[in-house]
Inverse folding.
């Protein structure tokens, strides 16, 4: 059973989470991920190892939590003026970030330390939120748009499958091809 919480904590709990996450990122950069241990992270974060074990369970779940936070988009999707071009720009950026070695490592970490599927659901929610913004803009422009689940099924899912299992030859043309297959080529 996962010990981490699905909501962002406040107060001391938020400070502990922030310091532990920062310690993981710093140590990963300094000594590499293979050298990370709970006592090492705890020492850097200024907490006891039992705090980490109590909150995250083990190093794998901690790494998973950190990865999910790193996969959170930092900005809203670009508004390029049309559904097709907005989806293409977003899909290209998503593919580029997720297919990069760090994106793949974060995805693996997010899923490996996720016994109950919470992290996978959160990662999916991040993509859905971004797509909702794009579809909301399209609705405001009176464009005919698919629903969020259709975009996830026809654009995001194929990209993630290829990223995880068949990464050769992935490029922005592939992302654009998926979008055109969904919304057509006339909506530019």
């Amino acid at each position: 059973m996962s010990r981490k919480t699905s909501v962002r904590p406040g107060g001391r709990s938020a400070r502990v989470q922030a310091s532990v996450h920062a310690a993981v990122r710093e140590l990963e950069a300094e000594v590499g991920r293979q050298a990370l241990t709970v006592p090492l992270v705890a020492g850097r974060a200024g907490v006891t190892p039992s705090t980490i074990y109590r909150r995250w369970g083990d190093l794998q779940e901690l790494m998973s939590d950190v990865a999910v936070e790193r996969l959170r988009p930092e900005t809203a999707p670009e508004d390029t003026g049309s559904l097709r071009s907005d989806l293409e720009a977003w899909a290209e950026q998503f593919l580029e970030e997720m297919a990069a070695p760090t994106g793949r490592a974060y995805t693996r970490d997010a899923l490996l330390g996720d016994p109950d599927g919470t992290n996978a659901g959160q990662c999916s929610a991040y993509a859905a939120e971004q797509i909702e913004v794009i579809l909301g803009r399209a609705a405001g422009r009176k464009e005919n748009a698919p629903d969020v689940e259709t975009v996830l099924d026809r654009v995001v899912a194929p990209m993630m499958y290829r990223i995880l299992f068949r990464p050769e030859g992935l490029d922005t043309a592939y992302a654009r091809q998926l979008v055109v297959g969904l919304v057509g080529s006339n909506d530019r």
